[in-house]
Design brief:
The structure holds two protein chains of two kinds.
Chain A lengths: L3 E7 L7 H18 L5 E7 L4 H10 L4 H12 L2 E9 L2 E2 L1 H8 L10 E8 L7 H12 L3 E2 L4 E4 H6 L8 H16 L18 H6 L4 H9 L6
Parallel strand pairs in A: 1-2, 1-3, 3-5, 5-6, 5-7
Antiparallel strand pairs in A: 3-4
Chain B lengths: L3 E6 L15 H17 L4 E4 L12 H10 L5 E4 L2 E2 L5 H14 L6 E4 L6 H4 L7 H17 L3 E3 L7 E4 L13 E4 L4 H10 L2 E4 L6 H17 L10 E3 L3 E3 L3 H13 L10 H7 L3 E3 L1 H15 L4 E4 L8 H25 L10 H7 L26 H8 L3
Parallel strand pairs in B: 1-2, 1-13, 2-3, 4-5, 5-8, 8-9, 9-10, 10-13, 11-12
Antiparallel strand pairs in B: 6-7
The chains are: A alpha/beta, B alpha/beta.
Chain lengths: 224, 393
């Protein structure tokens, strides 16, 4: 059974950051859940803070630096992604959004994603539903049903077994991601079939022949 | 001529960040002419102008510009960088460039590009989302207009043609050579390969890996379509340099232009951009060395153009760049010639294309007869006409 690759994208700014803390909890839980299915896991972290300049440069130049390209390629190759952002002004942070802005169309098609967010107050708790899910749905990712939101008080209560315990939500979301990432024979193909859009690299790999391009060009009603 | 060297411009009107002076459109247009004439003077082979229809550019109406420059030069090949095959009517392109071919005795070729931003397309009744399709259909028509007379045609993006003959016919019956330019659209490399045309990668502002990838695909598909082996494909590259005798002087002088440049300004540091893209800022020797490295990832190629006049660089500086370019030109020619494998085709010229076609032909359609008398002075079977042609009358 091949090793599953999980990439954790987190947009925390401080050190230590509660965003990274939540990212680590999710990564650990996901590893355990996948291991429990008898499958090896490899976890890679993409910390966006260190890529902040590169991300802005990419917006301006249209291409990623070598380091940013490595992060983008990791996400592209991942079997599952854990995406964690702090809440800024009622939504994901600009840094978090910029990373998804520079991904080529199609990179997240059908990709299992666990969405998570942190905030200073529980009043932001629906941010996953009103901000992260629409973004990831637009990118054709498959988002697990449980999103994990953690406010300051959740960290304080983590592990106490109290109702709404953060660890419980983390484990549930991780189990859902593990199921989508699959890997065991019993649920091979558990990930829903999603049409993969053609990337530029696919076109280089197997170019569309010119007869098809010609036909495609003239297909359709007159536009003059 | 094994390989051609030249310059290409996009015709931007940009404020000089070091003086705050913005050239007027008139000054920039005249500067473009001065740059082209200087390019010929220092021994370059090609001058290419872009085409844009929006500020801050003065690059509309490239055919007038090229004809005007052509009238004041003797040897330099005039080209485009690029001709907007998406939004320009192929009927006009066919006429305009055949006319320039005649005026300049074949000293012209073209590079096709999509090269427009979204807002530009609707001004010409087009839609950017159809960019590739427009490039494919329009060029297919353009080729027919240059190679066939009495064309019947129906397509998606322009009104149908019935019995249309584009005039004048291409000089000597041979259409201008065409390059197809694209940064990262494999479909355009495929198009160039299908027709056996040239492929040009602008090779500026982007990592050289883009150029390598596109050229590789073009060469493979060129062979696939039976035009010859991969190293017989016709490849052109762009590039960008700023030279001073002392490399630190070059960096100090160019940095403010780089930092404020359109397209990539206010982004990465000059040093990072030089590493990530083919931009070379330094001494003439550094420019020579970097340029020769292009050969490592595209192989033997036919045309090298540099962008040297953008980002608000004043005319005087640009002309100095051309002097330096002229100084390194013999070395560039000699070193590239040493690398060149035998059997690699020379850069395209009108004379070579005519020779390849087996000599000049007159493809003009002359009137079948005048409407009043039904007679024609071109009827070779008419003994009276024969007398005229023999000089007897």
């Amino acid at each position: 059974m091949s090793t599953k690759r999980i990439v954790v994208v987190s947009a925390g700014l401080s050190v230590p950051s509660s965003t990274r803390l939540l990212a680590d909890m999710l990564a650990d839980a996901t590893s355990r859940a996948i291991n429990a299915r008898g499958v090896e896991v490899e976890v890679e972290h993409v910390e966006l803070r260190g890529l902040a300049h590169a991300l802005t440069d990419n917006l301006l130049t249209g291409f990623p630096s070598a380091e940013l390209k490595k992060a983008i390629d990791a996400v592209h190759r991942a079997d599952g992604v854990i995406a964690v952002t702090p809440v800024f002004s009622a939504s994901y942070s600009g840094l978090f959004k910029t990373f998804f802005d520079v991904l080529e169309t199609g990179v997240l098609d059908g990709k299992p994603v666990l969405a998570a967010a942190t905030a200073g107050t529980a009043r932001h708790s629906l941010v996953i539903e009103h901000a992260l899910r629409p973004l990831l749905a637009y990118l054709h990712a498959v988002v697990v049903p449980t999103g994990v939101f953690a406010a300051t008080e959740d960290f304080a209560a983590a592990g106490t077994g109290a109702e709404g315990d953060l660890q419980k939500r983390v484990d549930r979301a991780a189990a859902e991601l593990a199921a989508l990432v699959g890997g065991s024979t019993s649920d091979a193909g558990a990930a829903p079939a999603v049409v993969q859009r053609r990337l530029v690299e696919d076109e280089f790999e197997s170019p569309t022949d010119f007869a098809t391009l010609l036909k495609r060009a003239s297909d359709g009603p007159p536009e003059y | 001529m094994g390989m051609q060297f030249g310059i290409f411009t996009v015709g931007d009107v940009t404020t000089d960040p070091t003086t705050g002076i913005t050239p007027t459109e008139h000054e920039r247009i005249k500067a473009t002419v001065a740059i082209a004439k200087k390019a010929e003077e220092v021994g370059l082979d090609v001058f290419a102008t872009g085409e844009h229809h929006n500020p801050p550019f003065i690059a509309s109406n490239p055919t007038a510009t090229l004809a005007y420059i052509g009238a004041q030069t003797e040897n330099i090949i005039l080209s485009t960088s690029t001709t907007l095959i998406t939004t320009t009517d192929p009927v006009l392109i066919a006429e305009d460039y055949a006319k320039i071919q005649h005026l300049l005795d074949g000293r012209v070729d073209l590079m096709m590009g999509r090269g427009n931003t979204g807002p530009v397309y609707p001004w010409f009744g087009k839609d950017i989302r159809q960019g590739i399709n427009l490039a494919v259909e329009n060029y297919a028509l353009l080729r027919r207009l240059w190679t066939e007379t009495n064309v019947d045609w129906k397509g998606r993006f322009r009104t149908p043609l019935q019995g249309y003959t584009s005039t004048p016919r291409p000089l000597d019956g041979v259409a201008p050579f065409v390059w197809h330019g694209s940064i990262r659209s494999p479909e355009i490399a495929e198009q160039a390969a299908y027709y056996g045309d040239g492929f040009f990668h602008n090779h500026i502002f982007w990592p050289s890996s883009h150029a390598a990838q596109m050229v590789r695909l073009y060469r493979e598909r060129f062979e696939h379509y039976g035009h010859g082996s991969q190293d017989q494909a016709i490849v052109g590259l762009g590039g960008q340099f700023f030279m001073r005798k002392n490399s630190q002087d070059a960096i100090n002088e160019f940095r403010p232009y780089f930092d404020n440049a359109p397209v990539y300004g206010h982004g990465p540091a000059l040093e990072d951009f030089m590493e990530a893209t083919p931009l070379t800022v330094g001494s003439p020797q550094q420019v020579i060395e970097r340029t020769l490295q292009f050969h490592e990832y595209v192989g033997d190629y036919q045309r090298q153009l540099f962008l040297i006049d953008h980002a608000g660089l004043p005319l005087k500086t640009v002309l100095e760049q051309l002097d330096l370019y002229g100084e390194i030109l013999p070395t560039l020619r000699a070193e590239f010639a040493k690398l060149r494998k035998p059997g690699v085709p020379d850069a395209p010229t009108h004379a070579a294309l005519v020779a390849k076609a087996g000599g000049p032909t007159d493809t003009a359609v002359y009137g079948a007869g005048d409407d009043a008398t039904g007679t024609t002075d071109r009827d070779l079977d008419d003994p009276e006409v024969a007398k005229v042609l023999d000089g007897a009358l």
